[in-house]
Amino acid sequence: MTDVGAQPDWQVLLIGGSAGVGKSRAAKMLAQRFGVSLMMADDVRLALQQMTTPTSHPEMHVLSARPSEQLTPEDIRDGLIRIANALSPALEMICAHHVAVAGAGKLIIEGDTLLPRMAAERQHSQLKYFADLTTHDEIRAVFLTEPDEKALLEQMREFSIGFSALKAVDQERIVRASWLYGQWLAQEADAYGVPVVPVRPWDTLIERVIGSY
Asked: What is the DSSP letter of 7?
C-alpha cells in the first residue's frame, strides 16, 4: 500500500465505478492533491460515438438502439458492459502512451467505462503502437463502490445533472442499473486483484483510495 503522504509512483491512475458513486469528485481531489492531469473517460466515449454510427460500430451505440423507456436495468447494465469493452482499446492506448512516452506526464482517468483488467494487464501486444510495451505498476486502478442502492439514489439526486427532473420510476430504473453495473465492476475488480473502495465515509475516502493501491 502507498503512504498517504507520499507522491505517486504510478504514471496512470484509473478511478472507476458506476455512475453516481462520486468518481468525478474523488478524481478531482486526487488530481489537485498530486498536481497531475485529469481526464474523463466519457470524453473519449462521446468523441468516438460522434465519429461512428450504429452501423459501423454497433457496440458503441448499443444503448441508443432502442427507446430508453424500453430498457430494463439489466439491459442497461449489459449495454454498459458492451460499451466499456468496445471503448477499452482506445483507453488502453492512452494509458500506454503515458507510460511509454518520456515527458507525457502523470494522468488520472475517471469514468464508468473503465475496466479493471486495464490495470492488470502487463503485456500490450493488442495495441497498434505499443505492442512491445511491458508494464508493471505504472498503471493502477481503484474502483469506488456504493453498496447501498438507496444511498446511490440520494447521491444521484444531489449531484447528477438533470437527474432530479426525471420521473421517479425512471430515477429508480437508472439507479438500479447503475447499482447492478457497480456490482459487476466490483466482482471484476476482485477477480483481477484490483482494489475496491466503498465511498462512505466521504471524509476519509481520499486517504483510503491512496492507501489501497
From this structure: P
**The pLDDT of residue 159:** 87
| DSSP structural state of residue 141 | E
CA angle 16, 190, 88 (to 5 degrees): 45
pLDDT over 70 at 1, yes or no: no
Cell of 6: 507520499
Report which secondary-structure segment, H or E, holds 204: none
The stretches of 35-167 forming alpha helices (DSSP H) are 41-51, 73-100, 117-120, 149-159
Q: Give the residue extent of every domain in the chain.
A: 12-212
Q: Which tens digit of pLDDT belongs to each residue from 5-42?
A: 678 999 999 999 999 999 999 999 999 999 999 999 99
Peptide bond into 89 cis (omega under 30): no
Nearest CA among 47, 3, 7, 49 for reference residue 30: 7
pLDDT higher than threshold 90 for residue 93? yes
Of 3.40.50.300, 3.20.70.20, 3.60.21.10, 3.10.150.10, the CATH number of 12-212 is 3.40.50.300
pLDDT, residue 111, reads 98
Contact criterion met (CB below 8 Å) for 138 and 66: no
Distance (Å, whole) CA 64 – CA 204? 38
pLDDT at 71: 95
pTM: 0.94
Dihedral angle of Cα 174, 175, 179, 180, to the nearest 10 degrees: -30
